[in-house]
Amino acid sequence: MAYDGIVTAAVAAELNDKLYDGRIARVSQPEEDEIILTVKSRQGTFRLLLSASASLPLVHLTEQNPPSPLTAPNFCMLLRKQIGNAHILRISQPGLERVISIEMEHYDEMGDLKKCVLNTEIMGKYSNIILVSEAGTIVDSIRHVSSSMSSVREVLPGRRYFIPNTQEKKNPLSADRDGVCAVLCGEAPAASALSSSFTGISRVSAGEIVTRAGVDPDARCSALSDREKEKTADAFLQVMEDVQEGRFFPCTAVKDGQPVEFAAIRLTGWTDCTLVPGDSISTVIEHFYAERAQAARMREKSTTLRRQVSNLIERSAKKLDLQEKQLKDTEKRDRYRLYGELLNTYGYDIPAGSREAVVNNYYTGQDVRIPLDATLTPVENAQKYFDRYGKLKRTNEALTGLTVQTAEELDHLRSVSASIDLAESEADLSDIRRELTECGYLRPERQGKRRKPAPRRNPPYHFRSSDGFDIYVGRNNLQNDELTFHFAQGNDIWMHIKKAHGSHVIIQTGGRDVPDRTYEEAGALAVRYSEARATGRGEVDYIQRKFVKKPAGAKPGFVIYHTNYSLMADAGLVKDWMPVD
Predict the structure, then answer these.
(1) Residue 445 pLDDT > 80, yes or no?
(2) How far apart are CA 239 and CA 232, in angstroms?
(3) Count of CB atoms within 10 A of residue 331's CB?
(4) Which among 371, 415, 382, 377 has a CA at the least distance from the CA of 554?
(5) C-alpha 438: how far from its chain's center?
């Protein structure tokens, strides 16, 4: 579900209930577009997440406490100065806009009591966190918007703050029965008519309202009777009354064990799903978006690295294609050598100034037609062909090695790309960047005056099979090498997806026989952490670790092995597994 105005209203009500009359104890900015306020109120200490992420903007209470950078960003420093220890007066939502306003009072540098408002706008790629003064002007924002970026509103210090109404939608909280019926016209579906006419009403909320009225959400407005329109309007007004009175029902719709939707009102129309009530709207949002938020954050953080690797792959692929074409051209070298030999043998029979010669090939007994340069003698033509042969022979020798080297580089870069897809933290990306730097693909990052500490390296994934065997999975190529050649013992079982890029998997045997079920589960992990995860199935090679070798000078993650066994594995066997530590 979109984080619509009804969800925003539920969040504002929860924050007003728990944070009212509290004080800002701490301000941190763990991400470029994210603020966490630690608030101490009468009900306890809470952390409030304000995210202006373009891909997943959110506002909710959280139990998480992500680490902050050693040097706080400018906006964080300003908030600490302006609202550090500020007293929260009220948390509100203008109309049913996707905006949460935290009204506070604080003492300025002169000791005078001042008021300010911290507005978090949850508007997709236009999301922002804006501090507004008592006079209604912008003090600063987490994201600046100039006139060249937006013709609707500038978000810059000193500009007047207002919420733009670019879509000319109506405020649903002030709507009446006639106003709702009036929008149910035309050929648009009933649910779409409501969501496109009123602020803060998502397609899911509109669909629920229409369903409560006993009307098909996809039914065209022109096909509705007056009675059906009136019932839809009554259902709409009832939901708006619940919103104004704070009567919410945070819930998640779950299908086949997976959350597919969440809402701040009861979803009566989702009959094919199980409705799971939540303790609060914040817990519902946090649990629903937990994996999605992490994935979105990793996509943002890996954008630059992914683009660099993509460019390297494209460059290597073009280079390999050119080398293979050049190598194919050298296949004619033996023909030039033959021309030279035949011209030396039969040159005395060839008239001067000839443009071609037909001579007998004493190797096959067949006649051969040889093009000639009429300005050269037969002996000079023979030498010319020998020169061409020598050049192509040297080119072939050089390209044979270079083509293999380029193919290995391309394969390595594709394995790095697969590692980026599997990365789950900034530390994983740091390892991948280090690998590219050590292999000479990227230049070392320049360090500023204040050296940024490297993220703490993550250990390999650690799982435990149903039979009690420890299974380890590498996160990237460098870790694959370390796991296989420095951690695993000779009698441990090594696994890898067949003919695809993926993680090395180690079953720690401890000298015991490994049952079939453990092989199947470890194989499922090899599929899950590989390029084959999209299909969910794949063939997996396995062998004792002592038979896995790494050639001298090979790229990280590259190994060779022989006489291995194989099994077909299904990632669904371990899809719900979480690492044990």
Answers:
(1) no
(2) 11
(3) 10
(4) 415
(5) 24
Query: Which tokens hold the place of 105?
Result: 């009072």
Token couple for 399: 């390209």
Lowest mean pLDDT segment, chosen from 44-58, 222-236, 289-303: 289-303
CA distance 445 to 249: 50
Packing angle between helix 190-197 and helix 226-245, nearest 10 degrees? 40
- Model confidence at 43: pLDDT above 70: yes
Q: Which two tokens stand for residue 58?
A: 């959110």
Q: Examine the pLDDT at 8 and tell me if it is beyond 90.
A: yes
Mean pLDDT, the chain, rounded, equals 90
Give yes or no for residue 453 having a pLDDT over 60: no
What span, in angstroms and rounded, lies between the C-alpha atoms of 551 and 559? 7
Please give the biggest Cα pair distance in the chain.
112
Return the pLDDT at 212: 93
Structure tokens at 452: 């940024």
SS3 220: strand
pLDDT, residue 578, reads: 80
Task: State both tokens at 245.
Answer: 């009175």
Helix H or strand E segment including 326: helix 281-329
C-alpha 537/C-alpha 531 separation (Å) is: 10
Q: How far apart are CA 44 and CA 404, in angstroms?
A: 64
Q: Which helix (H) or strand (E) holds 213?
A: none
Closest by CA to 183, choosing from 174, 194, 170, 175, is 194
Distance CA(470)–CA(468), nearest Å, equals 7
Give the amino acid at 548: V
Main-chain dihedrals φ then ψ at residue 106, nearest 5 degrees = -150, 165
pLDDT tens-digit series, residues 512-554: 999 999 999 999 999 999 999 888 899 999 999 999 999 998 8
